[in-house]
Inverse folding.
């Protein structure tokens, strides 16, 4: 402690700045700290203020400024203009240190400006060492090894999950590659359902129309008759073999007269006539008339339906279709295989890196 007090007194005495002026040139030196521990670093700043355009030459220090005060590169030079560019300040910044306990005196530093020498103020810098208790000089130890903390679950779950996903992706890539190499044909099993006779489809549609509320409200007669006549036209088209869907009501009746009795078609003719009046003349029939026309349509289908052979009603056997993969399908398969392989490789590398980072 006595040594530290002596250092403080000397530093206080020598730290007083004594700037030296020479005409209009001003040279100043200052330290960031005047007392430090041995081995610590501080900044030494040498500043010259003069007129713009004057030539400044700083001292060519190499490794030390004075004996024991070492320079740590880099040395930085900075220039600034003040007073609206009428004056110039050039600064040189040194980083210095000392590796021994000492009180270092820095004499005024000479700077050449336009060939004339100017000197800065003097400085003093104290480096002090640690006081080691007597008898404990040998009880100094180097840095200890890093202490490893226990591994926690939150550090492992993500890399382990990523590793498992990479394994699944690798298995998928192997499977796809084997499929590509085998080039097995594509086997399709096609089950043919028995065809429902046209009269059953038509009667089913008419039953659904009867159960709906269409035709029982006063504003939807047109929709009711449109659906009813569409069912009849499709039935006639398939049952009698002429394109009833594209014919007028009169044309349909003329074709039917060739194979059917006119008396049996009287109710059908009334239904088609009423339908034309509703759709084109905005005729509004009574609700009971709608029901009667629907019943007439049902009776017409039942009276004219054709018998369907039993073999057409039986379920059909499955049909096996064997196809070879096209070139486009093979290219798609190999592209998917490569993409899955790349993803698997990336996930595997990332998971192993994370596991190594956590475990080691």
């Amino acid at each position: 402690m006595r040594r530290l007090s002596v250092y403080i007194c000397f530093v206080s005495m020598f730290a007083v700045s004594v700037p030296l002026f020479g005409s209009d040139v001003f040279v100043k030196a200052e330290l960031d700290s005047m007392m430090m521990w041995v081995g610590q670093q501080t900044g030494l700043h040498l500043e010259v203020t003069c007129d713009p355009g004057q030539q400044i030459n700083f001292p060519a220090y190499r490794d030390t400024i004075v004996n024991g005060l070492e320079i740590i590169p880099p040395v930085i030079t900075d220039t600034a203009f003040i007073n609206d560019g009428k004056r110039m300040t050039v600064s040189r910044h040194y980083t210095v240190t000392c590796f021994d306990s000492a009180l270092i005196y820095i004499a005024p530093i000479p700077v050449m400006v336009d060939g004339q020498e100017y000197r800065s103020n003097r400085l003093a810098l104290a480096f002090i060492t640690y006081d080691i208790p007597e008898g404990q000089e040998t009880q100094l130890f180097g840095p200890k090894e890093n202490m490893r903390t226990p591994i926690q679950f939150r550090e492992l779950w993500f890399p382990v999950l990523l590793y498992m996903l990479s394994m699944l992706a690798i298995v998928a890539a192997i499977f796809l590659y084997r499929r590509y190499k085998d080039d097995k044909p594509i086997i399709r099993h096609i089950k043919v359902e028995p065809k429902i006779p046209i009269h059953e489809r038509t009667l089913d549609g008419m039953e659904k129309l009867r159960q709906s509320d269409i035709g029982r409200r006063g504003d939807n007669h047109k929709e009711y008759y449109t659906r009813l006549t569409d069912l009849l036209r499709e039935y006639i088209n398939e049952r009698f073999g002429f394109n009833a869907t594209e014919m007028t009501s009169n044309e349909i009746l003329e074709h039917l007269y060739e194979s059917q009795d006119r008396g049996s078609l009287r109710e059908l003719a009334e239904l088609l006539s009423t339908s034309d009046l509703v759709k084109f003349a905005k005729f509004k029939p009574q609700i009971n008339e709608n029901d009667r026309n629907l019943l007439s349509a049902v009776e017409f289908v039942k009276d004219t339906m054709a018998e369907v052979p039993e073999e057409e009603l039986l379920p059909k056997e499955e049909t096996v279709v064997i196809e070879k993969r096209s070139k486009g399908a093979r290219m798609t398969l190999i592209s998917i295989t490569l993409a899955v392989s790349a993803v698997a490789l990336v996930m595997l590398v990332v998971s192993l890196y994370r596991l190594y980072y956590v475990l080691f």
